[in-house]
Amino acid sequence: MKKLFVLISICIISLSCNSNVEIDMETEFNKTDLPSAVMGKISKDGTMKFYSFGNEKWDNDTKKADENTIFNIASMTKAITSVAILQLVEKEKISLDSPVSDYIPEINQLKTLTNDSFEVSLQPITIRNLLTHTSGIGYWFTNQAIANDIQNDIEDDFWPKDDVIKDGEYDWKFGTQPRQVFEANQRWLYGRNLDIASRVIEKISGQSLESYFIENIFNPLGMHSTRFNLTEELFERKASRGYRDSSTGKIIENLDWRLPEFSENPNGGGGLKSSAKDYGTFLLCLLNKGILNNSRILSEDSVELLMEKQLDNFNIQWDSVSSAAASDSNLQMSFLDNNDNHSLAWALETNPNEKIRPQNTGYWAGIFNSYYTFDPENELAIVYFSQFLPFNDETSFTLYKKFEEKVYNEIK
């Protein structure tokens, strides 16, 4: 009987250990065909641990990618724009529930695209609608009606052609004008909302978006590698960017994207370039309730507000759209989750079947297959960067989730 008890104990211990096997990220990366990836765990006490694989420039092994390598962070820009909006709310220069038309009257030119025609919108769009993606404004890759109304660029299938601005039409400087497909507050739809919010920031502050970000967020936090327009020194640290060829399945660098870029009219919905260390610093500040190294960028109350659920009558809902910008081949492991909620800055995990993240953990991504997790309950954040299209790539997302699993295994 004693021998049987010992045997059972050994089995239980063995099963327990096997369910929490240490995950080696180098082994996991080597199982993939990814040219490079950088990921890191950020703890509230300021500790940052990074894992980097592959080359900064994919065809040059003299410089390995690391936490200072600069990536196009795309929609990871949105959380920074949300913080900037809340800064203006704190200063009582704007209100979350005021109509956007109070600050930019030209938004009243927007009409709702319905059945291939446009109708006058009756419900005002508020600042809160913009931050929560409940305005009815979408992207070409998140709504089929918008995709049908614009034209893809024949030289670049991932992006649409710029709209021709008509006489008397307000130019939002987005390339494609915003399109609304239903009245505000009807449901959630991911779209150009934070781009519009950035025009509010510029109008109220009297500064360009980049200048405002530098003065009020980047410089106070020491985020000197985060910019819309990179200096020559920063540009040298920029990672290769490419795409997964739909016919061969191989990831190929687009060498044209190595050319310097300059944006006269950057948008708050995307466009920032940053490093894993810099973006980790931004999330670290929020883990510490808006203060870092004696620099406060947001009050504790505003950070708490930033994390609150905003969707009462519906959850996130992703439309089915035919687009080269987002992969639909990732059916088993997908970023797109219709069971989650949304805060003023990012999605909130509310899927009862989620196995790794705690409920109400924040998360979002960038279209070039970068991701982050924000978990104040466990006082940690996760950043993950790769850089290629289309979005929702199964291999890259699976590696991010494997890293997330590793992080949570280590704190159990």
For this entry, give a set of tags.
single chain, 412 residues, alpha+beta, Beta-lactamase, 8-stranded antiparallel beta sheet, 3-stranded mixed beta sheet, 28% helix, 20% strand, disordered N terminus
Write a compact overview of the structure shown.
With 412 residues, this protein is α+β, with helices and mostly antiparallel strands.
Write structural notes for this entry:
This protein is an alpha+beta fold and 412 residues long. It has one domain (24-410): DD-peptidase/beta-lactamase superfamily (Beta-lactamase). Helices cover 28% and strands 20% of the residues. The chain contains eleven helices and 21 strands. The strands form seven sheets. Strands 3-2-1-20-19-18-17-16 form an eight-stranded antiparallel sheet, sandwiched between helices. Strands 12-11-21 form a three-stranded mixed sheet, with no helix packed on it. Strand 19 and strand 20 form a beta hairpin. Helix 3 packs across helix 6 (193-205).
Number of discrete domains: 1
CATH topology value: Beta-lactamase
CATH superfamily label: DD-peptidase/beta-lactamase superfamily
Return the structural class. alpha+beta
Secondary structure layout plus pairing:
Blueprint: H1 2-18, H2 25-30, E1 36-43, E2 48-57, E3 60-64, E4 70-72, H3 77-90, E5 111-114, E6 117-120, H4 127-132, E7 137-138, H5 144-149, E8 152-153, E9 156-160, E10 179-180, H6 193-205, H7 209-221, H8 232-236, E11 242-244, E12 251-253, E13 273-275, H9 276-287, E14 291-292, E15 295-296, H10 300-306, E16 341-342, E17 347-348, E18 362-366, E19 370-375, E20 380-385, E21 388-389, H11 394-410
Parallel strand pairs: 11-21
Antiparallel strand pairs: 1-2, 1-20, 2-3, 4-13, 5-6, 7-10, 8-9, 11-12, 14-15, 16-17, 17-18, 18-19, 19-20
Helix pairs in contact: 3-6
